[in-house]
C-alpha cells in the first residue's frame, strides 16, 4: 500500500492570542491589557497608554495640579514620575511638542529668574502695579484700553496661589487651578471642599436660598450683565480725568439694532 503525500498548501496559522497570563490589569481603569502595551512609572506601577495619555493631556491644557505633571497615577500615593521614554509612547509628534513646551514654561516659572517679565504695551521690564505710560499719548486709546481691561477682569478669576487667570465655560462653581488651588467661582474665595456651598435643594437660578447665604454650587453667572456693569463703572471712574473722551461712544452700542421698514429699504435699492 502506497501512501501519497498531500501537496495542498495550507494557510499559515494565525498569530497566537495572548493568554490570560500575558495580560495585566491597568492600575487606573482596571482594564486587562497586553503587557507590551503598558507604561510604568519609575517604581514599576503599570498603566495603559490611554489612561496616561488622558492624565498628561489634562496637565498640558491646565486642568490639573502642577501643570505638566507626570506623577504616578497609582491610588497608593506613589510620588514617582513616568520617564520621558514612557510618556513619548502615548502621543503623536504634535501633542508631544505641546507637552515639551508646557514643561519648559513650568521650569521657567519655578526658576523665578529676574528680568523675564515684560510689559505688553511698552515691551520694557514689568512695572506692575504702576500703569503703563506708553498709552497716555492718546487719551482715547488710554480710556478704551482701561475700559476693556475692566470688562475682562470682571469675568476672569485670578488664582490666589499662583496668579493664573481662570475662566469657566461650564460645570459647577468649584474650580481648581493647575497649581492645585481650589476656589469658588462665584465669590472668588479660596476653598478646600464642597462644604463652602449651599447644601439645600432649590432651583439655582430662581431665587436665593431662604435657609442660608452660602454660595450656590450650580448657579450660572450672567456674563453680559457683569460686563455691562464693569464697563459703566470704569467709564464713571475715568470721567473726571478724561471728560471729553468719555462723552463719546466707547465700544459698540448696547441698544438693539433697529431695522428700517420694508418700504424704506425697497426705496433705497
Automatic annotation (TrEMBL):
Pfam families (UniProt xref): Rcat_RNF216 (PF26200), RING-HC_RBR_RNF216 (PF26191)
InterPro entries: LUBAC_E3_Ligases (IPR051628), Rcat_RBR_RNF216 (IPR047546), RING-HC_RBR_RNF216 (IPR047544), TRIAD_supradom (IPR044066)
Key words of the record: Metal-binding, Repeat, Transferase, Ubl conjugation pathway, Zinc, Zinc-finger
Listed GO MF terms: transferase activity; zinc ion binding
Limits of the RING-type domain: 22-213
PROSITE patterns: TRIAD
Pathway: Protein modification; protein ubiquitination
Protein name (database record): RING-type domain-containing protein
Origin species: Marchantia polymorpha (Common liverwort)
Amino acid at each position: 500500500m502506497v501512501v501519497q503525500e498531500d501537496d495542498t498548501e495550507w494557510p499559515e496559522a494565525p498569530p497566537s492570542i495572548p493568554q490570560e497570563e500575558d495580560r495585566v490589569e491597568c492600575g487606573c481603569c482596571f482594564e486587562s491589557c497586553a503587557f507590551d502595551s503598558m507604561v510604568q512609572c519609575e517604581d514599576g506601577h503599570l498603566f495603559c497608554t490611554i489612561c496616561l495619555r488622558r492624565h498628561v493631556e489634562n496637565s498640558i491644557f491646565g486642568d490639573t495640579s502642577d501643570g505638566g505633571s507626570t506623577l504616578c497615577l497609582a491610588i497608593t500615593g506613589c510620588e514617582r514620575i513616568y520617564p520621558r521614554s514612557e510618556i513619548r509612547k502615548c502621543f503623536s509628534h504634535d501633542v508631544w511638542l505641546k507637552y515639551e513646551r508646557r514643561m519648559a514654561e513650568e521650569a521657567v516659572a519655578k526658576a523665578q529668574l529676574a528680568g523675564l517679565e515684560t510689559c505688553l504695551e511698552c515691551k520694557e521690564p514689568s512695572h506692575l502695579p504702576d500703569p503703563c505710560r506708553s498709552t497716555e499719548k492718546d487719551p482715547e486709546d488710554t480710556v478704551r484700553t482701561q475700559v476693556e481691561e475692566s470688562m475682562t477682569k470682571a469675568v476672569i478669576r485670578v488664582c490666589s496661589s499662583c496668579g493664573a487667570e481662570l475662566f469657566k465655560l461650564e460645570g459647577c462653581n468649584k474650580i481648581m487651578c493647575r497649581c492645585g488651588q481650589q476656589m469658588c467661582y462665584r465669590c472668588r474665595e479660596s476653598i478646600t471642599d464642597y462644604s463652602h456651598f449651599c447644601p439645600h435643594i432649590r432651583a439655582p437660578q430662581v431665587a436665593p436660598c431662604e435657609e442660608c447665604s452660602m454660595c450656590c454650587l450650580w448657579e450660572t453667572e450672567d456674563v453680559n450683565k457683569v460686563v455691562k456693569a464693569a464697563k459703566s463703572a470704569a467709564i464713571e471712574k475715568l470721567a473726571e480725568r478724561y471728560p471729553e473722551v468719555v462723552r463719546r461712544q466707547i465700544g459698540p452700542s448696547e441698544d438693539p439694532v433697529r431695522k428700517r421698514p420694508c418700504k424704506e429699504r425697497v426705496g433705497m435699492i
